[in-house]
Amino acid sequence: MKYSLTLLGILFASVGALAQPSAQQRIHYDETKRQFSLENSLVKRVLQLTPSGLQTVAYTDLRTKTNVIRDPNRVREIAFQVNGIPFTGRGAAGFAVTYKTHTISEKVGQGSVLRVDLQVQHPNRFIVFDLSLYYQIYADLPLTRKWLTIRNTGGDPLRISELDWENLNLDLTAGGVGLTTAVDVYAAYGRLPTRPPYIGRTDDAALLIHNPEQNTGILLGNEAPAVMKRTHVYRDSTEVGIGMGFEADDFPFQKTLLTDETFTSPKAFVSLFKGAVWQDAFAQDLATYVRTQLGTRLFAHKKTPTAFYNTRLPFGRNLNGPQLKKLVDELAPTGIDYLILDDGWQDNYGDWNVDTRKFPNGLRPLTDYIRAKGMTPGLWLALATAADTSAVGQEHADWFMNNRDGQRHSLQGSGAKNLYTMSLDTPWFDYILQKIRTLVDEHGLGYIKLDLAAACSAYRLNSSDAGDWATGAGRTYANQRESLWRLYERTGQLMDSLKASHPNLLIDCTHELYGKANGVDLWLLQHADYAGLASNRIGASAGSRALRQLTYDRGQVVPSGTLLTGNLRLDEPLAKQQYLSMASSTIVFTGDVAKLLPTDKAWLKAWNGWLAALNERTQYTRFYQTGDVLPRPDTHNWDGAIRFNPERNGGLLCFYRNDSPEATRIFPIRGVKPAGTYLIRQGGTNAVVGTFTGQQLLTTGLPVTIPNRNEASLLSIEPFVKPEAAKVEPIAAKEPAKMPVK
């Protein structure tokens, strides 16, 4: 008997149910062969139930009819250690694996999911657990997504480590010949070419194995958080594994499960690519997945801000009511959407009450005034930091983390000596969650900036300084190594809880909270709206270029619209150049607004309005492409970004001339419709640059002239609508004039 699931609405099928076939995607079970197949028009993955477990026996690109699984017998499917004993999907010595059941489910627009339930026992070691493997396939993407759960059903604790929840033997060559020379690996957000073997870490949320002779590739996606990621490529012949840190790594994964406790892994995906331009593996299939299926928080909002202002510079922590009221008045004519009060509004770290010495009437009059002037207020807060002088710190000293010497610890590193890190796996979690909710409700906040380390420091280089060496006070981790995963898990859960109660709240997770300098990944996007980065600020023109380098380096994997890069100032000599640079990501400024001339404010308002209106029509902020056309910003070249939305057939074109002697360059514009006609206008003024056919833009290219070095040109591109010919009303016929009667 055969079972399948198809796109017919929200369906749920289990063993014994039958669904009708579909042209889009389906999951199918052949009881005779004991095989599952996940299939759409692009890829097909076949799984074989065996006496030892479950294995992928075929992963085929249906466009090329190529199966990238060369030797199914070598596929481990999953791999981890239980109490130090290795276990894989093809079995392991001493383990008995029993197939229990499977289910197939679907949510319209979110793909179909296969769940396979297995029971695993190791009688001699008193190890018993339920293992569930999940596989997801979508209608129009050449990938499958995967994760697992482990539930301890025995009486003894289970310690899980060395985890790959996706482990396959994938080969783009002729039977594994010349693996280290025939393929390239594009790592570090897809920008660094290297060769296998390779182990991906923090910056490898997605990496590409590419065969340049065949123009084929395999994209490996790892949705684990920050420093926990581990993606190994051809460590052992053609084996690839997607998981978290091993015991020998700097940031290993460990999890102890007591009886009836369940662990759920992050997710992974494997996407097959065919195309002449390897960058398209990121710019097309991956970008579509991140935009439509990943669960990117920012893209759940129908409307997003154009520009932010943050008080960090020049005010520092020296905030007060009259000063900020004046700032609001200065900002109002600029068209800024969000005004963020950074560090300095609070009485003490940890207590997070408004400092009534600076704000005698509280913050509510100020936040009301911000809204009255057409802006939305936001607030900065250190998620897991408290002073030892705070009321909560003195009352609950056991919530503080310890270092390896058993002393109270600051993960953040440098800073005030009396600031330490609280563990999110203690009752601090509920305490700080309620604090944030109260602040949001009492002050009508639309944005919260969550800062400073909670699991790992962005600045401390010794991995033993990460995590928590303390136990007790409700902590569920048994040691420092276990604390790493748990603290990241709790960080994500806290942001999810905030979103559940305040779905319209914009959450900014800074790179310091993330735990890697200027780091961001797919895990962060699923829990926060924005990733807060920091510019190097090396002079004005170099600062603009450094900002675009940050965007370029990450934008192939992470949507540039989710990046908030701080520290650039409105009051610097080349602030306008910096503004135009930020249009390739998201605009966020600091600086002394009082120094701006009325003409500067009018310039800002015009640009903010122009970009907001363009985004309303095209949603260009969800797109960012450089492809093989626009290089990394450097001292003497041109760079830029194509922010074109093919679904709305329009967007924003960003071009930057650095210290290049060339005043004109020609760039092909990819993504346009060859048969279409497009109107291109100058940013800010809406002056018409010209009309071009899609074929011209694709093949001949768009000529762009920037007369001066270190300047920019931003252009809108939208479908050309031919003006209707003016209607000429027919002139009524007049009677001939009658001759007067004599």
From TrEMBL:
PANTHER family the record matches: ALPHA-GALACTOSIDASE C-RELATED, GLYCOSIDASE FAMILY 31
This protein's UniProt keywords: Glycosidase, Hydrolase, Signal
Annotated GO MF terms: alpha-galactosidase activity
Database matches in Pfam families: Melibiase (PF02065)
Name used for this protein in its record: Alpha-galactosidase
Enzyme Commission number: 3.2.1.22
Source domain of life: Bacteria
Gene Ontology biological-process annotations: carbohydrate catabolic process
Signal peptide limits: 1-19
Class of enzymatic activity (EC top level): hydrolase
CDD domains recorded: GH36 (cd14791)
Organism of this sequence: Fibrella aestuarina BUZ 2
